[in-house]
Amino acid sequence: ESEVPSCIARKVSQYSCQRKTTLNNYNKKFTDAFEIMAENYEFKENEIFCLEFLRAASLLKYLPFPVTRMKDIQGLPCIGDQVRDVIEEIIEEGESSRVKEVLNDERYKAFKQFTSVFGVGVKTSEKWYRMGLRTVEELKADKTLKLSKMQKAGFLYYEDLVSCVSKAEADAVTLIVKNTVSTFLPDALVTITGGFRRGKKMGHDIDFLITNPGPREDDELLHKVVDLWKKQGLLLYCDIIESTFVEEQLPSRKVDAMDNFQKCFTILKLYQPGVDNSSYNTSKKSDMAEIKDWKAIRVDLVITPFEQYAYALLGWTGSREFGRDLRRYASHERKMILDNHGLYDRRKRIFLKAGSEEEIFAHLGLDYVEPWERNA
Ligand code: ATP
Ligand code: MN
Ligand code: MN
Questions:
Q1: Which among 102, 119, 134 is the end of a domain?
Q2: ipTM greater than 0.95, yes or no?
Q3: pTM of the full predicted structure?
Q4: N or C: which end of the chain has fewer CB within 10 A?
Q5: pLDDT at 215 over 80
Q6: CATH code at position 138
Q7: Which CATH number belongs to the domain containing residue 344 in this structure?
Q8: How far, in Å, is the centroid of ligand 2 from the Cα of 318?
């Protein structure tokens, strides 16, 4: 019935940038399991095994049918032995004992909680775990922990930040960002990127790319924007990273390239239209607890020179897996180096200019993949 004919299986690319992956996932049962395995390996800083499971998850998200027999995955790329074992157990038993072990693992459970705090990564989690800490409640109660400004904000707004951002909230924040930017640079382009550009209905943050068509960008723009929000009482946290871009520098060859654009990681106060405090203000306010009529939302702002905008847009739209495979494809299949700033052809020794994402795919000899098909 639904067996992949081997002629089709052989055609499936190992690179997710040569596949169209929508949000319509027929194999969530498997991909959720793989993502737990990958996360556990990330916590153990085992990048190879982590990537093995992430790549397998991407592949199964792409398959246009649910996997029900081992035959269904015959001949497909990205399925290593570990992955095959997990698939086999889920097919036969309905669940994987290895995944269950991970979910019950003390270290995994603690790291999962710690890394859910904004500003806390694997390194910090490792330190706190060794100190015997296990839960977010224990972290909050421990007044001796030395916290960064970012982590302090992470604990202060913890409940809001772990509850995901909805599409409606993303739309509301988009209006705020566009309005504020246009008061300083009326011609600036503001584009939502990240998961929301790929059509996701939920996200952990909202990502925006800003560029100014014309001679050059304004180094002061991000500062002006956050200063205004501060004045309006909307800014709960902000960390501006200044640009470190050097002209003529070869693109970064790292797999997970952080770029050199000026950017700003913020937490904004978004007033919730549904909650109304006004009636309380008129009556006996003193003995009424204030109702919180806002939600803390993580917002990333990135500003790029106009010539690099297409590359930045491609990089910031993700998914992370899709971007990783684009860069891997460029270097392994085309002898080119791709990052969020540009594309360098090592044979011709030139940077390839692009005014749109379509042109970048064309430079790489790839069929164009729409943003909503990049959910690898
Ligand atoms: P989510 O819904 O969880 O936010 P997302 O796909 O939007 O999912 P993000 O972590 O917001 O995930 O990242 C969006 C894209 O931007 C990813 O493809 C990632 O590679 C890229 N990205 C994130 N942070 C940086 C950074 N500091 N430098 C360069 N690129 C980044
Ligand atoms: Mn995002
Ligand atoms: Mn982000």
A1: 102
A2: yes
A3: 0.94
A4: N
A5: no
A6: 1.10.150.20
A7: 3.30.210.10
A8: 9
